[in-house]
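Can't paste images in this forum, so I'm doing it all in text. The chain is below; anyone willing to post the predicted structure tokens underneath?
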Amino acid sequence: DAGYLVGFHFHPIVHYDQWQQDYAHVVEQLSALFEPEEVALVSMGTLTYIKSVMREIRKRAIPTQILKMPMVDSNGKQSYPDEIKLTLFSHVYNSFPENWKSDVFYYLCMENPRLWKPVFGYEYASNDEFETAMKNAYMDKIKLRAEA
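Text version of the structure:
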């Protein structure tokens, strides 16, 4: 422990065979290596493509399973349907120990705000409210580390 705060960015979270076990294992390893006091944030986002990338994959006939994944239009990009996103985010979040959930700032990165409440049990009324909460959480962690 060098005294630094760290953050973990699960982005992209990818839906594939054995994804639940793999992500739970990563969370288990992080939880064993770090105390929640050392972690400022955990953010999550899913696999997302701009349409031109999908066209280029098709044009080049690149062998990939990506084109077989269930994707829908999401703000002009291709991403998982909300049902899959909720499953992914909820699983990763619920894999963390309870003391992490109260001591670490969690957020969804570049995802629809309507997904927050079903995943975390809370939501923000506006992006400004979210940014204020995030900055306050970071500053509180920095102050605690400085006092230690």
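The chain has a mean pLDDT of 93. The CA atoms of residues 61 and 99 lie 47 Å apart.
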